[in-house]
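Before surveying the methods themselves, let us examine one representative protein, pairing a chain with its fold in token form.
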Amino acid sequence: MKKLIVLFLLSIVIKGSAQNSDGIFSKNPIINLENYQMKRVYFGFFLGFNSYDFKIDYKVMETDPRYSSDIQTDKSGGFNVGLVTNLRLHEYIDLRFEPGLYVAFRTLHYPPSIGFNNSSDAIREINSTYINFPLLLKFSALRTGNVRPYLLGGVSANLNLSSNAKSLDDNLEERFRVKSWTTNYEVGFGIDIFSEYFIFSPSIRGQFGISDELIRDKDPNSPWTGNIDAMKSRGILINFTFH
């Protein structure tokens, strides 16, 4: 399904440019939207996909054989949708605000060495619905015809709408708790493709958690959280932006 959507989005751009011999990827293209990026402010929207993981740091507990193996994370692809506000700072530098909805799915598998009585206790599903608030700097290269590559970097904050931070239950009641707010840094790259009517900008970037996301169980020796020093989200984001 993802491949079909990607092919559909790409076909919109290619078909629009292939209707004449001077298309986007021809040797001597007609320059599309030549002055669009000279605007002080312009807007857009994006659709995309994500794959989120956890980076887990452990406490030093070498004397406890239960923690001889790491917790494994199964990743399932999620989706992204959001808006873009672009503020031109310089010919090659822009400030971008890209608030969006990111839905992610992850499953934690605890090692058999912990010795849970029930197999279900060794699995914790974590479904997250993030409202992402990134503030990014975009560094664009010199435009060549109707193509312009760029780099992105900045910081973001995530509000997890699926967080159960206020819950009094913990893993003893099969409730794995994470915090409502987390902070991240983001880096990536993309390319602006100028068609006759709009700018199509596919991009890929990494999101790396700065703050610990885990809420510990009430029992400090909990087999689910007792050995975790920090648990931070990290994700790969693929967005298709239209201006």
